[in-house]
Design a protein that fits this description.
Largest sheet: 2 strands, parallel
Strand content: 5-15%
Number of helices: 4
Strand order of the largest sheet: 1-2
Number of strands: 2
Distance between the termini: 21 Å
Helix content: 40-55%
Length: about 70
């Protein structure tokens, strides 16, 4: 859903660190549709995806939030 909105808005580049699989592994509900797949299925739009930037640091932030949050 987010990647669709990014394409519709004309954003040309997206940078992220944490993966869908990591979030699922720590208990976050996710849509299992990678950003690159959304782009590949939307040939009318173009967006560069840069994955894994500061991945360990991003993962740690999600872990901290998960530990602090009440059970989902």
């Amino acid at each position: 859903m987010c990647m669709g909105a990014i394409l519709w808005s004309g954003i040309e580049s997206v940078v992220f660190g944490t993966t869908i699989q990591f979030l699922v592994d720590i208990g976050w509900k996710q849509l299992h549709i990678p950003a690159r797949e959304v782009i590949e299925r939307s040939p009318e739009w173009h967006c560069k995806v840069i994955a894994g930037v500061l991945e360990a640091e991003c993962d740690e932030l999600f872990l901290r939030v998960s530990r602090a949050a009440p059970s989902r």
